[in-house]
Amino acid sequence: MLILGIDTATVQVGCAIGGHEGVLASAHSSRGRRHAETLTPAIEFICRQARVDLHEISVVAVDRGPGLFTGLRVGIASAKAIAHALRVPMIGVSSLDLVAFPVRFSDRLIVSVLDARRGELYHAFYRQVPGGVQRLAEPGLSTPDDLAAEIIARGEECLLVGDGAVRYAEIFAGLTRVEIAELGLAYPNATALVQLAHARALREEWVAPWDLQPLYLRVPDAEISWTIREGG
Questions:
Q1: Average pLDDT by consecutive 10-residue portion of the chain (232 residues)?
Q2: pTM confidence score
Q3: Angle at 65 between CA 15 and CA 213, to 5 degrees
Q4: Domains in the chain, ordered, with CATH?
């Protein structure tokens, strides 16, 4: 079983190929908001590096958000198109799960935090479990101050990971018993996506391309602008 993973939920674009033997090839790039221009050449590159023909892919996995609206649309649309063309199933994974997974060996409360723009953060809480991490509740959207207050109320040692924690480091760094993970772990990555998707694929937890939906948590800016225009 070979899995193609596509991640475009943040400013970083990533893709990877892997399966039973682990991740065979991956590529990640941050070039502003040029997701569409970056993704296709990146997929072609990792296919060459892994010596895999695209038609050998058995499952297409994609980061379904939350994240940047334009990036999500590019990644999910591309993943669906590939899955439909290959007639293979899909697996969607939350971007917050992908950020938490690389720090799964921490025995502290893990707080995955992504920048939602407009002074808000996407976030979710996790605990270490055998083989990975477990999300404690559904992902949320809040201001940095509100999230800091929730962390204080929990009264636990916490590891914050994600670009949202880095951006608002001045708020979180002042909290006791809280550490912010290194910048290199700030974004979801396609390597983690393939690893998580492989475990789900073994349990046949996939969906048809037309059933996979993005996780926004907030109305896209374009819809907000249109609503205001209609109201005017």
A1: 96 95 94 82 97 97 95 95 97 98 96 96 97 94 97 96 96 93 94 96 95 87 49 53
A2: 0.91
A3: 100
A4: 2-95+187-231 (3.30.420.40), 96-185 (3.30.420.40)
